[in-house]
Amino acid sequence: MDEPIIEALEPPKPAPTGLNIVVCIKQVPDSAQIRVHPVTNTIMRQGVPTIINPYDLFALEEALRLRDEYGGQVTVLSMGPPMAEDALRRALGLGADKAVLITDRRFAGSDTLATSFALTAALTTLAEERPIDIVFTGKQTIDGDTAQVGPGIARRMGLNQLTYVSAIDSLDLAAQGIVVRRRSEGGVQVLRSKLPCLITMLEDTNTIRRGTVQDLLRAARADVTVWSAEQAGVEDPMKCGLRGSPTVVKRVFAPSPRAEKAEMVTVEGKTPAQIGDALIDLLFARDPKLEAVVTAAAR
Amino acid sequence: MPAYTAPIRDMQFLLHEVLNIATAGVPGYDELEPDFTGAVLEAAGKVASEVLAPLNRSGDAEGCRLENGIVRTPKGFKAAFAAMKEGGWTALDSDPEFGGQGMPYLMGTAVGEIFVSANMAFNMYQGLTHGAVSAIEAHGSPEQKATYLPPMIACDWTGTMNLTEPHCGTDLGLMRTRAEPQPDGSYRITGEKIFISAGEHDLAENIIHLVLAKAPGGGEGTRGVSLFIVPKFLVNPDGSLGPRNAVSAGKIEHKMGIHGNATCVMNYDGATGYLLGDLHKGMRAMFTMMNEARLGVGLQGYAVAEAAYQNAVIYAKDRLQGRAVTGAANPTGPADPLIVHPDIRRTLMDQKSFVEGARAFTFWGASLIDRSRRQGDAGAEALISLLTPVLKGFLTDKGFETAVSAQQVWGGHGYIEDNGMAQFVRDARIAMIYEGANGVQALDLVGRKLAADGGKPVMAFFDLVKSFVKEHEADAGLKAEFLGPLKAASKDLQAAAMIFLEKAATDPNGALSGASDFLHMFGHTCLGLMWAQMAVAAQTALTEGRGDPAFLNAKIVTGRHYMARHLPATALHLARIQAGGDTVMALAPEAF
Ligand SMILES: Cc1cc2nc3c(=O)[nH]c(=O)nc-3n(C[C@H](O)[C@H](O)[C@H](O)COP(=O)(O)OP(=O)(O)OC[C@H]3O[C@@H](n4cnc5c(N)ncnc54)[C@H](O)[C@@H]3O)c2cc1C
Ligand SMILES: Cc1cc2nc3c(=O)[nH]c(=O)nc-3n(C[C@H](O)[C@H](O)[C@H](O)COP(=O)(O)OP(=O)(O)OC[C@H]3O[C@@H](n4cnc5c(N)ncnc54)[C@H](O)[C@@H]3O)c2cc1C
Hints:
The complex is a heterodimer.
Chain A: E1 19-24, E2 27-29, E3 35-36, E4 43-44, E5 50-52, H1 54-70, E6 72-79, H2 85-93, E7 98-102, H3 112-129, E8 134-138, H4 149-157, E9 160-172, E10 177-184, E11 187-194, E12 197-201, H5 213-221, E13 225-227, H6 229-232, H7 272-286, H8 288-298
Parallel strand pairs in A: 1-6, 1-8, 6-7, 7-13, 8-12, 9-12
Antiparallel strand pairs in A: 2-5, 3-4, 9-10, 10-11
Chain B: H1 8-18, H2 34-52, H3 54-62, E1 65-67, E2 70-72, H4 77-86, H5 105-118, H6 120-139, H7 142-153, E3 157-162, E4 178-181, E5 187-197, E6 206-214, E7 225-231, E8 233-235, E9 241-244, E10 247-252, E11 263-275, H8 282-288, H9 290-318, H10 342-375, H11 378-409, H12 421-429, H13 438-449, H14 456-472, H15 476-506, H16 508-513, H17 515-543, H18 549-565, H19 569-579, H20 582-586
Parallel strand pairs in B: 3-6
Antiparallel strand pairs in B: 1-2, 4-5, 5-11, 6-7, 7-11, 8-9, 10-11
Helix pairs in contact in B: 1-2, 1-10, 2-5, 5-6, 5-9, 5-10, 6-7, 9-10, 9-11, 9-12, 10-11, 10-17, 10-18, 11-12, 11-13, 11-14, 11-17, 13-17, 14-15, 15-17, 15-18, 15-19, 17-18, 17-19
The structure holds flavin-adenine dinucleotide (FAD) (2 copies).
The site of one flavin-adenine dinucleotide has 19 residues of chain B, from strand 3, strand 5 and helix 13.
């Protein structure tokens, strides 16, 4: 009788522990080194060194801190031209565990809608390997400046979105819950959410770590995973790049300064009500017509 | 407080345009791509400016204190040491088998410069450990390596070098510290060592002293000397710390500079020691690390000068005094900045051309050490042995001079301690003295290195210069401004070398009277060669459209300054050597 060949059976893989975090980073030109063409007034991008979008470093640091505390892994993900691999390698040197670049001619000219579409496809593909607990993005970029990509991803993936986060108060791996502070107008909101979720980190909330020699060496030796649109899991290329981008730039111009200058006025008073009254009196004294308009409207 | 910014662009230029490490064929260099070296240097620069430089002034002002046998380092040193360890900076070029990062020595040298510029005294704790690690790597038994290397490479334990005794400095043959063999194979070490850098401190769990001592049966002089490992805490077989050994710091010195580094009198009162390497071969064991240790001290010379120079430039652009002779440069201000004045420019160009040339020379030296270590290149080994006293002596003499020049730019404010320029001068001074005083380096050069292997290494150096000149002679601009002066300097040096080879036997006093001059003219010729190579590299990069044209053009101008205004010094040094020892040795000691 044949002995059962126990050795041939693959041992079950140990379940991954800790958090699976993906940080979206964008490679941008170093705006500190951009010069404007003296004649044409256009931005001269040639030869300008690239950097990781500075806002994304706050997201990366927060992700690394969570990983250091709870275990798990941090993957950095970027969409961009092949040279965006530099930015990913720099992130590896700062301590990220894995890097994925999605790059394809068909991504060229993406607006925020198309960008969040492509990134969502890649995130979904990554999640097949191991479910993602948190997606981090920066608050905004220094070149596009829209602050739309993070929310766009959250909406497409159906994740709770926690934007303008200034601190992560607590995280409960077992209960899959997180509590964060969100800066909002006039105060701080304390938000509780289920995992998975998407967090966009506010600037100046932490300081990116200095790379260690170990991480720099690992980064130099590591392979950055490079995916085309198909490999990233994009099913409808029409939703990518220029074709998938409804935004049209009509004109770019530098606004001309207004003729009249703003003036700052100050009033004094002991209570807020007194200050308010004093201010209204001052404004009405400067502009009698305003008084008529406001009192009429108030009636 | 003085500022410091790591000269990353200059280092990258040397690595990738001058030394062309990518195509150098040295094992391990293939990994040193520009992006990678840039990232490492940038990260090191951050550590330097954020962690080390802020402690330079305060560490100097506070100094070390000895309290009940325990040395306390200045405030902040402990945390900074922990940050260095955590970042992996202590183990950059150490053996991966024992926890090192295995990077080439060249990379360790570049990063080392950044750390030394930011805080020389602090960096010595790890620098000395590195030296001790190299000695154990080279001479330790497998057990000794396994016991000591991992914690020392991690800098959980630090190391020291114990040569000097009160009556025995340069002349190690006078050594009195004794080693008595014990039945268990260990030795009992008894004696007093002085001036031991980092001999005692509060940065590490254990301190591993490497001690030169005389064991019975070795004969007179240096021949009887052996090298011993003497741990502060004995190490148990499982690697944990055992009882305290009979070694202690009796005193720490009150000294001119490097106040943040504890210079200790070490008392060995029958301390347990273990032979490192062969019995009675201690001097030879020390010699194997000499090239590296001395290159490291030469590096200190120009690294401190670099920091001083950076602050001279900042001041010269900021301080308003007098008007430019050709008309006001800052007409809306009360005066022009110092940098408009030709004499200030002259000294800044002197400083800049020395520091950048010295960096090139040191990086080249480090690459020779890599070739010798990683490829077993005997020619490279012979050449670096020849150049080691030049690197040590010339770069520390000139480094000190440069620090003084940088201080001078600050006028009276340079003399005021709060401004930090005086510290650079005080710190730079020791590098001329320890690891073999510079006069002794000159002796080593003319007495030992010049005639080594029938003069083959020095001939190889002259051939190197000759073939470089020949290769580039077609370029008329280069020929006039770089190759001509280099050729002239090399000719002076050859003439001087001949005098030494002839006089060594017949007129030793006459020969040795010119030893320091020979070391200096050799140093100038090396920097001349470096500048000619940098000019070629800068020109090539310009032609091929790589790099920042402003930086590359400045390189060429700085090189022209060195060639025109410093290289001619070889003629003066030659004249002194030709003058011989008559006046030098004529007077009787009573006449002084
Ligand atoms: C009006 C307008 C017109 C534009 N027209 C064009 C155009 O014609 N052609 C063109 O190429 N571009 C164009 N752009 C730029 C392009 O839309 C954006 O750069 C891109 O969609 C990302 O948006 P953002 O830079 O504003 O990112 P934000 O939404 O500000 O970024 C938020 C965060 O999302 C993440 N993120 C953003 N981009 C990426 C990425 N590529 N990979 C990984 N993570 C990322 C980062 O974490 C970032 O911090 C235009 C932008 C605007 C505002
Ligand atoms: C701050 C500091 C840190 C130190 N750290 C260490 C350390 O960690 N470990 C250690 O072992 N030592 C250390 N030293 C000691 C240092 O290496 C010695 O001071 C140095 O080697 C010179 O020895 P010396 O002081 O006895 O001078 P001497 O040997 O007395 O020399 C005095 C002068 O005479 C010259 N001279 C001597 N012999 C000759 C000769 N034959 N021909 C021509 N000229 C000669 C020398 O060049 C020197 O200028 C340190 C010293 C200091 C000040």
